[in-house]
């Protein structure tokens, strides 16, 4: 996962235009509220994206980051499963549509997109952004106002995504929603991808979801190289990855004087009833590069977490190890 994530031009322009309709102090106030909620936790009795200004603040402040994280996770899936060519996509808790844009960037063959979201303001904002997309599937996405609860029927689609939502659901609803998505995925043999912030809490949500997906009989496609227990000891470490993105104009306005880029950390799991090929192992830290030696921290199939030194004497493997990045499969999948 190297390089800098870039938003599609149409999304960048649509965001700039939509945010321009709000006074900067109002956006700044709403961004500060969001930052406080992410730090201190959400009051689930009050919808976080309840007002238009809150949605605009979310879109300006968070959407570039969630878009980049979702695209990075989906790209890893696409690398492992080049034969996976989804036509239909359902995005659960879609907010302003980050995952819709990201899925389209990775699989431009998508033709039919549905977004399930509880907030009418988020739907209105997301629709306005999507109207500017060049891809018909994004422009014509169906946005359904839906409150996910214990009885919500999971959507059937080739690709189902749920990004940055688990942490906003109560624990009981969370497990039921994941189980129901898993069962529907098993029936449809589609790909289910769940993404959360790359924090200890976000990883704990992904680890719990991963157990439920495996219990439902799904194969884990990524990032794990196996279906077994995660070798990471919760509380001591957490499995996460990072993607670099340029900070949006709004982000720079509300956080004066900080860096022009940020690294969005995320955890994810992709699973399917179909056993797609998966990584032999996964790079779970920035590779340590010294003269003539690269050491990869790997999550392996069978050996848990292990440090894997690759020296210059190993020729081609060394050249590949110098190019591999945190989050990539090792060895690199053949393309
Ligand atoms: C942090 S935002 C993530 C939005 C989007 N998926 C993204 O990655 O940018 C969480 C979204 O989940 C939605 N959400 C939270 N609880 C929900 C529920 N019970 N039913 C439907 N949507 C819900 C919120 O309204 C919000 O749009």
Structure description:
By secondary structure, this protein is of the alpha/beta class. It folds into 2 domains: 4-272, Vaccinia Virus protein VP39 (Rossmann fold, 3-Layer(aba) Sandwich), CATH 3.40.50; 281-330, no CATH class. It has helices at residues 9-19, 24-40, 52-61, 63-80, 98-106, 120-130, 136-139, 171-188, 200-215, 249-254, 316-323; strands spanning 4-5, 88-92, 112-117, 142-145, 159-163, 191-197, 219-222, 241-246, 261-272, 281-283, 288-290, 293-300, 305-311, 329-330. The strands form 2 sheets. Strands 1, 2, 3, 4, 5, 6, 7, 8 and 9 form a 9-stranded mixed sheet that branches. Strands 10, 11, 12, 13 and 14 form a 5-stranded antiparallel sheet that branches. Strand 12 and strand 13 (305-311) form a beta hairpin. It is globular, with a radius of gyration of 20 Å. The two termini are 16 Å apart. The chain binds S-adenosylmethionine. S-adenosylmethionine is lined by residues 49, 63, 66, 93-95, 98-99, 117-119, 122, 146-148, 163-165, 168-169. GO terms for molecular function: iron-sulfur cluster binding; metal ion binding; methyltransferase activity; structural constituent of ribosome. Keywords: Iron, Iron-sulfur, Metal-binding, Methyltransferase, Transferase, Transit peptide. This is rRNA methyltransferase.
């Amino acid at each position: 996962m190297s390089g800098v994530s870039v938003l599609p031009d149409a999304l960048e322009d649509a965001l700039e235009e939509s945010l321009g309709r709000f006074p900067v102090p109002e956006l700044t106030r709403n961004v500060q509220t969001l930052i406080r909620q992410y730090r201190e936790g959400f009051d689930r009795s009050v919808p976080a994206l309840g007002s238009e200004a809150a949605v605009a603040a979310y879109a300006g402040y968070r959407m570039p980051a969630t878009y980049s994280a979702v695209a990075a996770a989906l790209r890893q899936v696409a690398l492992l499963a080049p034969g996976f060519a989804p036509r239909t996509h359902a995005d659960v808790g879609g907010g302003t549509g980050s995952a819709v844009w990201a899925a389209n960037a990775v699989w431009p063959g998508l033709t039919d997109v549905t977004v399930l979201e509880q907030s009418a303001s988020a739907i209105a904002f997301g629709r306005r952004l999507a109207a500017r997309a060049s891809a018909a599937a994004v422009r014509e996405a169906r946005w359904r106002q839906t409150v996910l609860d214990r009885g919500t029927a999971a959507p059937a689609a080739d690709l189902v995504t749920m990004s940055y939502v688990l942490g906003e659901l109560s624990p009981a609803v969370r497990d039921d929603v994941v189980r129901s998505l898993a069962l529907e995925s098993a029936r449809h043999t589609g790909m289910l991808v769940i993404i959360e912030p790359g924090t200890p809490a976000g990883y704990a949500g992904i680890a719990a979801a991963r157990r439920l997906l495996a219990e439902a009989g799904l194969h884990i496609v990524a990032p794990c190289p196996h279906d077994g227990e995660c070798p990471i000891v919760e509380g001591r470490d957490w499995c996460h990855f990072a993607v670099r993105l340029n900070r949006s104009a709004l982000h720079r306005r509300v956080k004066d004087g900080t860096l022009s880029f940020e690294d969005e950390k995320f955890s994810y799991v992709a699973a399917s009833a179909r056993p797609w090929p998966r990584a032999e192992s996964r790079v779970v830290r920035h590779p340590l590069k010294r003269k003539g030696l690269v050491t990869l921290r790997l999550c392996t199939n069978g050996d848990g977490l292990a440090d894997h030194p690759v020296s210059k004497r190993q020729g081609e493997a060394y050249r590949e190890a110098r190019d591999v990045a945190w989050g990539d499969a090792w060895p690199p999948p053949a393309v």
